[in-house]
Fold this protein.
Amino acid sequence: MNAALGLLVQALHLALILAIAPLLTGFVRKVRARLLRRKGAPVLQPYRDLARLLRKEVVLAENASWLFRVTPYLIFSATWAAAALVPTFAAGLPFSWLADLIAIVALLGSARFFLALAGMDVGTSFGGIGASREVMIAALAEPAMLVIVFTLALIAGATQLSTVAAFMSSSEVGLRVSLGMALIALVIVAIAENGRIPVDNPDTHLELTMVHEAMVLEYSGRHLAMIEYASALKLLLYMSLIGCVFVPWGLAAPGAGLEAYAIGLAAYLGKLAVGGVLLAVFETAIAKMRVFRVPDFLGAALMLALLGTLLLFVTRTR
Amino acid sequence: MISPLHLLVANAAALLALAAIAIGLGRSRLGATLTYGGTLAVSILTAMIAAWALLGPASVPALLRLPLGLPWLGVNFRLDTLAAFFLLVIGIGCSASSLHALGYGRHETSPERVLPFFPAFLAGMTLVVLADDAFTFLIAWEFMSLASWALVLAHHHDEESQRAGFIYLVMASAGTLCLLLAFGLLAGPGGAYGFDAIRAADHGALATGLVLVLVLIGAGSKAGIVPLHVWLPLAHPAAPSHVSALMSGVMTKVAIYGFVRVVFDLLGGLEWWVSVIVLVLGAATALLGILHALMESDLKRVLAYSTIENVGIIFVSLGLALAFRANGMSEAAALAFTAALFHVLNHSVFKSLLFFGAGAILAATGERNMERLGGLIHRMPVVSAAFLVGCVSVAALPPFNGFASEWLVFQAILLSPDLAQWNLKLLVPAVGGVLALAAALSAACFVRAFGISFLGRPRSPAAERAVDANRHSLSTMIGLAALCLLAGLLPGLVIDGIAPVSQALIGDSMPAQSRIAWLSIAPIAQSRSSYNGLLLFLFIAVSASLAAYVIHRVASREARRGPAWGCGFPVVPAAQYSADSFAQPIRRVFGSVLLRARERVNMPAPGELRPAFFRVELHDFVWEKLYAPIERAISFGADNLNRLQFLTIRQYLSLVFVLLVVLLLALAL
């Protein structure tokens, strides 16, 4: 009976992620618009956009190959899988042991690999410029991410997110400077990975922001819908990740009752709302960087994460 | 009773016989079929016997002594689990190469320069792994080196091949010399050249350190460790593609075998500082290798540089194993060692696949330069699909095999805080960061390699006319691609297969993985970290197909072709992103320091009618600071000594007289 309940919660978790990802995107856009004293589109606009795109026909470039047509679905499901492996409202779900944090990050890497290839498939310079910048940013973000994982593993003794979350919500953690540094580094990596300001701007495809949007310029209709959905899922993934590692309160323990799940869900939605507002405030307060300033930005993340690790070594020898 | 060892030695003998026959058959059409058919059969047999010896109930280690060679030593062979594992790698790589060559070999312009050396090369590699005394080991090693050198020179009219062949010969000889000295030190003054005697002997600290350095140079130069890698990106691509695959995929692994045999088996317990050297060298190798690969536009050279990167990853893993072993952390050492061997297997499979793909492109278009390829996905659908699998594997992306082994390496890195030494504690996270950087750069490199060669529009008429490869090549590539996927989905089986090797060398092995539910892998405990490629793959495959099906059923299924958007300008192939422009951001960020990359733009003033020029300058520090001075010194010495050849008879006589006096004086004193 317990196993069946676990599977049910797991299925619910998968559906929940799929359901609220566009909502988060819409929410962030709305808050940003309000901060800029615009009225902004309704919070539910991303759902309408997706529905509209899904109904439209696809216009393929003349020499688009099978890879171009398969990629959107692959990216969507890889990102969905990765997002579903991060604990949201409950830890220790039946399939949470499918991958640890390193594998989750690598799964996103697979999605990026195929997206970059799809960008190059049509053979225009837009796709190429987007793909080459995307892989550069990834090359800078991945080492930082690994060192962050290293810091977390050092503190929590695991890379399995459920275990990490359980440890972080226990009283053993205390207040550590390293954790703060890891948090800042993770936020920087998350901003870069999601192509948010100041690294990239998800709302335009002007030349200045030619990373993600340049790569998907040739996509239309249902394919574009899948890619947009995947971006929304990725944003949700990083929000959930930061939530489950650094503010794990309210996370339902494995096998907890319905009440705990309800509390976990409420806490999770609250965390997302706070995270969304913070992201919007940050984005409105800062200007877009030149592409070649991004290495400094991400280099700071790497240095912070390394410093966090070193500090941890120093404090452990008390 | 015939033991596996007897069969394996007989296999090597059969290969040598094949080489002799191939000399006779020379140019005839039958020669290629017979040679490659023979090597295919023998290699499959080798792989099967090795798998049997590794996994089956056969008794290992087995010994065999042939009354050849030095009369007091004989020729000794030994088959243990380590040898069996590497023979399995050799068997898989060689059978794939032979099968590929059955089709590919027809494009060979001068088969008599390839056929006799190919079986000899295979025999050399097999015998290196089987050797049980220093004499046999060195003979086999030199056999392997020289046969592959001859294969590098198969296209000897090509100036680049000549240069590659020369540098390879110099480096290979220097490497063998170092190994010779290393074994001399190991054998000690008594001249005990048998591996048993070496294993039993107690080597002093000085001798151990010297042997380590010599082996790092000897085996490391063959494997392609920075700074001894310079010959590799020249020699590997110069050979015919099936040989390139063998050199990159298998011969580098034999070199790693040499390192493992000496350092883990013969030398026994080592100090922790040894691991620092190996870790630093490995990390430098991984990073520099992949950076060079990103700057290169010759497809086969990209692959060769990526081999250097992967060797670096393997050495980092071996260094971790040494560090853990020196600290008595046998479980962690077993994890790192297993990761290294797993990556050895993986790299041999996907690098062979990639080289076959490059060979298929070369056969179809006559081009190795990516800047003249493009759009091949439409004309070579099967090759492109298989090559894509290879690219995803080498880029260490789930759910393929490259990720599984790199994941294990990272898991081993995460255990480093328990090490006792502060230097190692601080070094290993940095090495981990470098490794993550190398992995990300390798993804970038293979996005570039695949994207420029196979995607987009054709950049040359040759690329427009390309057709898919012949059925031998295609079946080889499909088979290897399937192996990549299989090893990625079921890593637990491979890890359990490696367990006896690590048990024998480290004294411990990773916990049995096949007993974990759902075939996931967990290096230490499932609550700490686990990974399940199979279920992830199934989830992605099912949900992607389901999403596509539902959308096509419910929402829309129409698709229309239209011209690509080029800002109102016609989209021409020349306006595409090129390999150079793709690498530009990375060149600027990483290359400006490590390769001192400089871009020079010579732009005409407005109204001026001359063309604009854009030049990229790259510097290979290793070559400029290390090899160029040596080269200059040798040329200087040779030029000056050359005068001795143009003396008169009187001067020669007086030289002899002076020498005589000096010798007599030496005697008198």
Summary: The longest strand of chain B covers residues 62-66. Chain B has 24 helices and five strands. The mean pLDDT of chain B is 91. Residues 330-365 of chain B form the longest helix (36 residues).
